[in-house]
Amino acid sequence: MEKIKKVNMGEQQKRYLSLDVFRGMTIALMILVNNPGTWAHVYAPLRHAKWHGCTPTDLVFPFFLFIAGAAMRFSLAKVNLCRNKKVYFKIFWRALTIFAFGLFLNAFPFIRQDWDWSTFRIMGVLQRIAIAYGIGAFLAVRFSFTQLWGIIVSILLGYWLLLWGFGGSEPYSLDQNIVGVIDAAILGKSHLWTGMGVPFDPEGLLSTIPAIATLLLGYMAGLMIQTASDMKENVKKMIFFGGLLIGAGLAWAFVFPMNKSLWTSSYVLFTAGLATVILSGLIWCIDLKGITKIFWPFVVYGTNSIFLFVGSGLWTKTILKIHFTLDGNSVSGYSYLYKTIFQPLAGDLNGSLLFALSHVIMWWLILLWLYRQKIFIKI
Fold first, then answer.
1. Is 72 within 8 Å of 354 (Cβ atoms)?
2. 336-369 pLDDT, tens digit each
3. Where would I find the H helices in 167-264?
């Protein structure tokens, strides 16, 4: 992890504010959907699709990867896309660091009885980000614009053919997809997530390959923004481009269903298209029209994103391990807060939502303090 840096505000202003806002909106939604008071009472849009489909919650992860790709274009441009050992080492080190933080989160809270390495989950959200970033950045440095498009198309078509050709009679089902088979062969069934009732990791190795395409589509959007001579015209082009991706994703979904857990090619196109359209709208409102005040809370949320992901994960795991007595029963600190404060205040469903919103506000206040101190924790 790099040192905590106090950044000059002039340096911050060189960034496209719309990118920070989009990142902030995505992260705020992540905190909201990850922290209900109880999973037994959650509004449908704040849940992942059970298998096929795409809810607002299913947009969080691909949007974050898309934004990471767009930001990657700006960071690589600073070194003029140089192909030298220093650039490659920086890419590798950053990917390795993010991956290590993912393993750290999986292992936390390091209580001895929890250290069952035979069932330790290897993959996760940060691990996928690390792999997608590492490979995506390498490809962006090594290959031209045209070649990158060829790589994106090859990934999406190749992934479709792989799943269709080597799956069972229902190749896109939970039980018969090739993704779980390959992940189990490489990582071992005991190291996969079991939240769906069978060993299957929604952030597994094979399904990370199309996630690289998500990041590269974000990189392409970043390239359009950075090289635009007329941003108004560029916004129109981005909206058109995003619309094409959305349409292609919806059409492809008839034969290759949208599925976050499999990270299907139709899901990649649809979510990247939505991200492109939303980013275009934000550029129009914020960077062209100067409408910034209403978006300022999300600017705060758009800073220190990896710190927030790790910090919120550590917080949740910690209060889940702390126990209190309630009505003669031992409950986690998480449940205790929900049942003693939020459920009596707003009922089951709205209390669960209010609990999640309280976390959104809590983390915003923490980020606001860091923002005002001009402290930005970089990895």
1. no
2. 999 999 999 999 999 999 999 999 999 999 999 9
3. 178-187, 208-227, 231-252
